Backbone:
């Protein structure tokens, strides 16, 4: 039996004349932390949006637990069990931290929470995992950048996803916040959530990911164990230049 939980097949995304993602196959294994790396403009965020169901491919298919979800609306994909955070965090600034996460609990949830009480429970559970339970009543705008990123993670987690996709959650964080976020991601994974992380910080992915896929100019150039991918000549050249 295949242990692939989320799979993109021959995914291509064009923006006018630009091919941002070209014929990429990516298979996310149940329980893993898969890293998606590549230099700026390589197509990481676009591939991320395609497999998260946020953006529709020009060609190719996306399947979740063997079911085709390519043309399902983004909201259905969340309900099915795939949740994503975004590179740019956009909390509802005037709403409380708890209310922000309750939006996640209502928006996509399996099984759907019955009423405010259940949504509040799911939200508090996610906040506890993300170390934000004591900030539940604060307005979102009062959080540090690190706190806002964890809030974004909590919001996605409150949908109880099977696969959590994270786009550059470490960007802009100081070393302490980075370490704390890496611990948080490991803890979420250990609780049984499969994780796909787009990351620019190669040192971080080396220690975190079980497997890495490297993109260069919209194409997958190599995938495998972190040490091997990060030492691959095509990856080194893409990051450092020839
Ligand atoms: P990465 O996340 O690896 O930096 P992106 O997926 O954001 O790369 O972008 C890949 C390429 O697609 C870039 O050349 C970018 O300018 C282009 N691109 C991304 N999103 C859009 C869009 N919505 N419209 C037009 N071009 C886009
Ligand atoms: Mg990006």
Residues:
């Amino acid at each position: 039996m295949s242990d692939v939980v989320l799979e993109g097949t021959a995914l291509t995304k064009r923006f006018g004349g630009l091919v941002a993602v070209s014929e990429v196959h990516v298979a996310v294994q149940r329980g893993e932390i898969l890293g998606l790396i590549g230099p700026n403009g390589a197509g990481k965020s676009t591939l991320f949006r395609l497999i998260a169901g946020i953006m529709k491919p020009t060609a190719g298919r996306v399947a979740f637990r063997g079911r085709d979800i390519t043309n399902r609306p983004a909201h259905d994909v969340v309900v099915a069990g795939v949740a994503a955070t975004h590179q740019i965090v956009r909390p509802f600034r005037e709403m409380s931290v708890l209310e922000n996460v309750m939006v996640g609990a209502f928006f996509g949830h399996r099984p759907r929470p019955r009423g405010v009480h259940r949504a509040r429970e799911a939200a508090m559970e996610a906040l506890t995992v993300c170390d934000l339970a004591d900030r539940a009543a604060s307005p979102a705008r009062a959080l540090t950048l690190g706190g806002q990123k964890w809030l974004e993670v909590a919001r996605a987690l409150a949908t109880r996803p099977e696969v959590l996709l994270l786009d550059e959650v470490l960007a802009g964080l100081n070393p302490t916040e980075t370490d704390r976020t890496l611990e948080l991601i490991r803890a979420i994974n250990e609780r049984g959530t499969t994780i796909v992380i787009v990351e620019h910080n190669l040192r971080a992915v080396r220690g975190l990911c079980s497997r890495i896929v490297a993109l260069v100019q919209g194409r997958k150039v190599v995938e495998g164990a972190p040490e091997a991918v990060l030492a691959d000549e095509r990856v080194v050249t893409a990051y450092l230049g020839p």
About this structure: The mean pLDDT is 92. Residues 15, 18, 20, 38, 40-46 surround adenosine-5'-diphosphate (ligand 1) (CB under 6 Å). The beta strands are 4-15, 18-29, 33-37, 59-64, 67-68, 82-84, 163-167, 194-198, 211-216, 219-224. The longest strand covers residues 4-15.
